[in-house]
Amino acid sequence: MCSDRAGEREGELDDLVYLGLGSNMGERREQIDDALGFLVKSGVRVVRRSPFYETEPVGYSDQPWYLNAVVAMRTDLSPTELLSLCKEAERRGNRVHSFRFGPRTIDVDILLYKGQIHRDNTLQIPHPRMHERRFVLVPLVEIAPGITVPGEQTQYADILAGLDEKKKVAKSKEHAF
Q1: Residue 34 a catalytic site member
Q2: How many domains does the chain have?
Q3: What DSSP letter does each residue of 23-39 carry, written as one string?
Q4: 95 among known catalytic residues
Q5: pLDDT digit string, tens, across residues 146-164
Q6: Is pLDDT above 60 for 59?
Q7: Choosing a second label site near 89 at 20 to 30 A (CA), which of 38, 39, 80, 169?
């Protein structure tokens, strides 16, 4: 596990914000690093970072593989403010929404927000498809093995263990940030 803060207690994992970052176009690592750098410069504090994972595309297979990672962070931003910041990071990375599940220079998704459930017209937390996605759950469980589904006692590690989705997810040679 990669961590920027020694001694982070397992019980505090639900008080953090978790983002998924991914890219499958251009310089994937650089795109992710740039997006995360923008978020940090904007005031979020990264607490834990997963290694990078090479992941098979989901939903539309005729595209390059993704480089994915999950970060845990602290922020005083509301979920809506954080969403705006994530969208700005994507805009700065020249993200084009060509079609659903299509290739992208950068994707920044809010997965979990301080153990809360948030639902409105623009944002759903927990991310509505994260429980179906090996490329999200593998890095999430690596940095937060005991984290639970908000409002439940189910651990994401248990969801991962029972996941039927078989898309390949392997640690990248690029390893950590």
Answers
A1: no
A2: 1
A3: E-SSSHHHHHHHHHHHH
A4: yes
A5: 999 999 999 999 999 998 8
A6: yes
A7: 169
